[in-house]
User: Fold Exocyst complex component SEC10b-like from Coffea arabica.
Amino acid sequence: MKESRDGTRTARASTKSSSADSYPLVLDIDDFKGDFSFDALFGNLVNELLPSYQEEDADSAESHSNITANDLLPNGSSRLPSDAGKSSPMFPEVDALLSLFKNSCTQLIDLRKQIDGKLHNLKKEVSVQDSKHRKTLGELEKGVDGLFNSFARLDSRISSVGQTAAKIGDHLQSADAQRETASQTIELIKYLMEFNSSPGDLMELSPLFSDDSRVAEAASIAQKLRSFAEEDIGRQVVTVPSVVGNATASRGLEVAVANLQEYCNELENRLLSRFDAASQKRDLSTMAECAKILSQFNRGTSAMQHYVGLRPMFDLEVVNEDARLVLGDQGSQPSPSNVARGLSSLYKEITDMVRKEAATITAVFPSPNDVMSILVQRVLEDRVPKLLEKLLDKPSLVNSPAMEEGGLILYLRLLAVAYEKTQELARDLRGVGCGDLDVEGLTESLFLPHIDIYIEYEQASLRQLYKTKLEELHAECQQSSESTGTIGRTKGASIASTHQQISVTVVTEFVRWNEEAISRCNLFAPQPAALAANVRAVFTCLLDQVSIYITEGLERARDSLTEAAALRERFVIGTSVSRRVAAAAASAAEAAAAAGESSFRSFMVAVQRCGSSVAIVQQYFANSISRLLLPVEGAHAASCEEMATAMSSAEGAVHKGLQQCIETVMAEVERLLSAEQKATDYRSPDDGIAPDHRPTNACTRVVAYLSRVLEAAFTALEGLNKQSFLTELGNRLHKGLLNHWQKFTFNPSGGLRLKRDITEYGEFVRSFNAPPVDEKFELLGIMANVFIVAPESLSSLFEGTPSIRKDAQRFIQLRDDYKSAKLASRLSSLWAGSN
Assistant:
């Protein structure tokens, strides 16, 4: 097999060699057309040579696989046998391929020269054709330009002919219009002459004016004749007649005008009768035909008004039924809620009627908006005012109706309900359609007689409500007083119960009245300036009411304090009385004390309710009033000033009452101290018994009384009022105790007892949270040491606490050993130095 392969390869090589020398390969230009591939061309050239080489290369690869390691060169190549290069060359087809490539290159050069020659010839032909084409295009352009010029001339000629034709058409149209006008004028003159024949004679008129089938044409001609005749008469009046003929013509046209007027009236009445007959049958087409013809007479106003006037919704029975529906049975007092429901029902019924009529009007009348305007205007000027006249009977401000009859507030509430519901009706009617009618303005005009002086009625109503409420409260208080009788009065415990207390509920009711009035202000006059003025006037009424009410309540509470003070003064007796008289006086004094304590609590409750009432008013002002006043410059500040002024009287009453409360408390403290304090409390005998370190009975009674009675003050007062009241009371208590202790003599054990009392008082007044008062009682505790220390230690005591020297000069004289120890001479130098 190997030998055969070698033989074949040799034969092929010889064949290739011979073919390479004879240039057998021929390359054609077609080989390079279409999808040309160099790899395919190259393969076609060498495929006949390379396959034999590849077979031989495969055989040599088998022999190379038998090479041992010893046959490998140091660089990794195999060592060939010595006779390998002698048998055959490494690549025997090289010569054949080289000859083939040279032959191919020669043929490719020849092909390139052929192609270059063809390209050169083609360029020459293209150049010749291009010059011919350019010449042809030039000639075509000249022809097109000539054609465009011809078209332009033709278009200009057509335009000129069209304009001439249009002018001729205009002239023809104008001539035709003039002919038509002349024809109509001839006809009109003929008809005018008929009407100008004799006054009141309508029998000789053309059949046109008596033919029912040509009523529309007759109406149109009659109106034209009438307009022309009246215009001519007007010109004759303006121009002074100088010719008899003019006067004659004028008189003739007056006859025509009179006859035309009579004919138009007769024709209009005939059409209205036909319209009414069609309306009864609901024949909308006939109604529409009549309405269209009637629109030529005064723009159809008479037909519109005639139609609206005959609507059943304006009948007298229907109007009377409106009042019964809204006001209820005759003689009964109307309720605003019932009136609101009645008005809503009635106005809804009216709106539905108008909506139903709108459908008919749209189908019948050529100008439905004008008819709707007349219909809605009739509703707002006839039906609604008649109802409002019965509903809103304006009361007299001089002789106002009593509250049993509803008072002024009933009128105002009915006015607000009627105004609000009528405004809703106006908006609904606007939605249905009313042409160019100013529905809102017309609705406002219905209420102008009421709204112009509305604020006066609002103020009078608030005053009436306030007066009625006070009378009611007074009657309740009187009834309560009568039912209670005089039980307990002899003990003085129920003096305050006979007086009417301030009620936060009543003040809240005042605010509720005012809030209702403010809502009406916003309803009737929403414009910022007018609203602010009305709001200020109404709010001022509230300020006056609350100020008077709480001030009078505080004054009544002060009267209780005054009565209790009078009871105390009544039972003050001297020292030289019998034991029975003294016992009776003591019992009466206790009753007066109970009355004072009750009055104190009552006034504190009044102060607390006064503060709550003022807070309610201030909160109402901040939430509801201020936002309505702020848009107007100065209104808010002025109202704040008015509020401060109104509350100043109450503040004055509170101040005076708190002073009386302090007097009441201090009077009872002085009574307790005078009744309970014994001389032996601070000057116990030196009998060897251990001293008593408890507070004295008088101190215990006073602290218990203060704790009990001031509980109301701690609850009622707050802020600066509480601080100033407790500070003043603490100062008065301090002063009263100093004056009280001036009546006693103290030994050292009594000084210790006194110091225990001062500690008890100090602990109590610490609850006042008044640092100046605490400081005074601390100094009292230090000053009590002047009764405890030995005489020789007094100087060192004063030197250590110089702040007590002034009061110590008085108190040191209360020592039981002041004279025996000659303390005056001992301390004289100290007093001189301090002075």
Summary: The first helix runs from residue 2 to 21. The CA atoms of residues 332 and 405 lie 10 Å apart.
